[in-house]
Amino acid sequence: QAQLLESGGGSVQAGESLRLSCVVPGGTWNYFSVGWFRQAPGKGREGVSCMSSVDGSTYYADSVKGRFTISRDNAKNTVYLQMNSLKPEDTATYYCVADGRYSEYGLCHVSDIYGMDYWGEGTRVTVSS
Description:
By secondary structure, the protein is mostly beta strands.
């Protein structure tokens, strides 16, 4: 059962921007690395961007470097994914994840998000050319 709720998905034109949000349960929030995965139609799930709980180090997949930015607001227990210069190939369902066991790199390379401490149901992003 998903425990996180993503928001901010939608349909946009290529070149436009979206910001995804995800609220993580409080309490141990500060000890969780957080991140975003995505799954495009007919493709496997991939780690897009993750952030360490220790020092805020970030990881980005090559396909989104320079366009996407992950951030977190500790006061709001919220993680964001700012997506700029969107491309049709960014079309996917985006999932928020959080886990206290991994670095930013490790989190984004976990094979099964459903084994993580927290995961979301996903929010759909569609980019038209």
